Amino acid sequence: MNMSRSAVMCWVLVGAGALMAQPPMLPIVRFINVRSVSTNSKELNAIGFDAIQAAWKSKGINLAVERRYDPAAVEKAANVIRDMYGDEGQKVRVEYTVSDIAPRSLQVSFEVIQLCTCN
């Protein structure tokens, strides 16, 4: 089979285009931290990480160590944490940060901040 130079070049360009069209590989989550912060004299009753992970799993949120990072899952996970504290009668705000860890890894940190229950 004798292909012309232009036909070979077309196949090379098509192959390169297919590779470039694939979405980039998302980094891997290496660490997940949840830290609670009390802002008044009544301590915040922390919820264990195992219970939080179980709630994420039951709600189909795919956030776990050694899994691909999904920004939408992190936002949903923060909402689940907030709701869990709310179910226990605690008013909180949940903030999160995502930090790069070389190579192509991340740490996801949640901070559960107690809201003032002052009257």
In short:
This protein has 119 residues and is of the alpha+beta class. It is built from three helices and three strands; from the N terminus they run H-E-H-H-E-E.
Description of the structure:
The protein has 119 residues and is an alpha+beta fold. It has one domain (25-114): membrane protein fhac (Ubiquitin-like (UB roll), Roll), CATH 3.10.20.310. 37% of the residues lie in helices and 25% in strands. It contains three helices and three strands. Strands 1-3-2 form a three-stranded mixed beta sheet, covered by helices on one side. The radius of gyration is 22 Å and the shape is elongated. The model has no long low-confidence stretch (mean pLDDT 85).
Major sheet: arrangement of strands: 1-3-2
Mean pLDDT: 85
CA-based gyration radius: 22 Å
Number of β-strand runs: 3
Helix content estimate: 25-40%
Poorly predicted ranges:
none
Order of helices and strands: HEHHEE
Could you describe the largest sheet, including whether it forms a barrel?
Answer: 3 strands, mixed
